[in-house]
Amino acid sequence: MASTKRRRSRRLRTPLSRGQRIAAPLVTFAVLLALWALVTETGMVDPLFLPSPSAVAQALVDQAAQGALWTDIGTSVYRITVGYLIAVVMAVPLGVMMGVNEWVLSAVEPLMDFIRYMPVVAFVPLTIIWAGTDDLQKFLIIWMGTFFQLVLLVCDAVMQVPQNLIDFGETLGMRKHDIITRIVFPSSLPRIWDALRVSLGWAWTWLVVAELVAATSGLGYRITVSQRYFATDVIIGYVVVLGILGLFFDQVMRAIGKRAFKRWEGRS
């Protein structure tokens, strides 16, 4: 029994219990919060540059009491939802076609690679000229920041489907459309879902960039306004809110993926 436990303890990626999975991140955040409080409450850093956790919490409470925090969260969540879904609806079918058709892959992949290396930030002034400063411009920035990357990730996920599964479908006399919809797409869906999770993080980044430059509402806009008045407590508070929102949506997608793709649960 003892030797069995020793062998398990030496294994790489030893599975954790549910309690350990919950405790580990809580301990990490608690340590970081304690260090932050220690540095700021003892006066080691000027509050103008790094306010204390209590000051940041109070700033968020004030913003929430005024209604600004909830309005900004609602606006940003709306923009991220619409812009990201547009990118997903366009990228997934194209990525699947690239993964199953060499002609489409050869024709489209170089263009995707070419555009994805262009910095989206450089297009912000152009998007303002093209779409103004309303929500359409924010959707366009999110689309540009996620679509081209997501197409290639979906294509890669489809190309990892074992060839013997495709050969099996062809042996049964299935049509190409049926092979794609009944074999290729279901087999690649767990990896596609992982790609969607990754690209959602990029979408949040580009949304904040758009709101920092040209917006009249949203989390990024509030950060810009706070910068003008050196309200670092509000800035850090909103950055924390962005992190919480991102973590929330990521964990929701992770939970959906685990429930939907139970046989691939070990990969999550």
Automatic annotation (TrEMBL):
Swiss-Prot/TrEMBL GO biological process terms: alkanesulfonate transmembrane transport
Entry keyword set: Cell membrane, Membrane, Transmembrane, Transmembrane helix, Transport
Family assignment from sequence similarity: Belongs to the binding-protein-dependent transport system permease family.
Lineage: Bacteria, Bacillati, Actinomycetota, Actinomycetes, Bifidobacteriales
Entry membrane topology: Multi-pass membrane protein
Protein name, entry field: Nitrate transport permease nrtB
PANTHER family: ABC TRANSPORTER PERMEASE PROTEIN MJ0413-RELATED, ALKANE SULFONATE ABC TRANSPORTER-RELATED, MEMBRANE SUBUNIT
Transmembrane segments: 81-105, 114-133, 139-159, 201-223, 229-249
GO cellular component: plasma membrane
